[in-house]
Amino acid sequence: MVSKAPANTAIFPWGVAGAAGKVDLVYYGTSYYDGVNPPDSYPASAAWNVYFAQNLNAIGAPASWTQKVVSPINHYGAVCEGGAGCTGNRDLYDDFGVAARPGTGLATIIYSDDQYDQVNPAVSPPPDPLFASCTPDRSNGPSCNHTSIAAQTAGAGIN
After folding, report:
1. How confident is the model at residue 150 (pLDDT cuts 50, 70, 90)?
2. How much is the pLDDT for 83?
3. Phi and psi torsions of 57, nearest 5°
4. Per-residue pLDDT tens digits for 92-111
5. Are 2 and 53 in contact (CB under 8 A)?
6. Which of 41-45, 75-79, 87-91, 98-102 holds the top average pLDDT?
7. d(Cα 42, Cα 52) in Å, to the nearest integer?
8. Distances (CA, A) of 28 to 2, 13, 53, 145
9. pLDDT band for position 138 (50/70/90)?
10. Letter string b/e over residues 126-141, b meaning 16 or more CB atoms within 10 A of that residue's CB
């Protein structure tokens, strides 16, 4: 289900359960995986996205998961998983989760994003006087960090 192509590395999973056997799972994923280094040491070329996995029959068919990319690239490079002892990048914080909407059971995902939004620059945060401004050339850092939302608009819900 997770840590398989295209998300060869999956971290920070969050899940929500619905009706009997129906489960949504979200995680940050990258196609990068070298089998040696932890995400704290991933190279700057490791591109991270938000993934959404769903199983509508986890009790009867535990291997029947679908996996979809639901965000543009939201981070490049290392990601800290080591808490206070971390040496990697902490830009993804712990601002991540998924909930099923009442009535429809469709997923709503909240996640961290430290990339300048080229398509819709209005969602990129304004310059912060404590950091360099968020520009296309200065993405992937705290000055561009913001919260994004992805909403499931079609397909099966978990109610």
Report:
1. very high
2. 72
3. -150, 55
4. 877 799 999 999 999 999 99
5. yes
6. 98-102
7. 22
8. 10, 7, 11, 15
9. confident
10. eeeeeeeebeeeebbe
Give which of 112, 117, 111 is closest to 145, Cα–Cα: 112
Percent residues over pLDDT 70 in the chain: 87
Query: Could you tell me how many residues make up the chain?
Result: 159
Q: Which tokens is 103 given?
A: 């009535």
Domain segments of the chain as ranges: 9-151
Question: If you compute the radius of gyration of the chain from its CA atoms, what whole number of angstroms results?
Answer: 16
Taking a C-beta distance cutoff of 8 angstroms, is the pair 51, 57 a contact?
A: no
As a whole number of angstroms, the distance between CA 9 and CA 22 comes to 24
Give every CB contact of residue 112 below 8 A, 6+ residues apart in sequence.
74, 75, 91, 92, 93, 95, 96, 145, 146, 147, 148
Amino acid symbol at 3: S
What is residue 106's predicted lDDT score, i.e. its pLDDT? Answer: 98
Alpha-carbon distances of 147 from 8, 135, 141, rounded to whole Å = 24, 17, 13
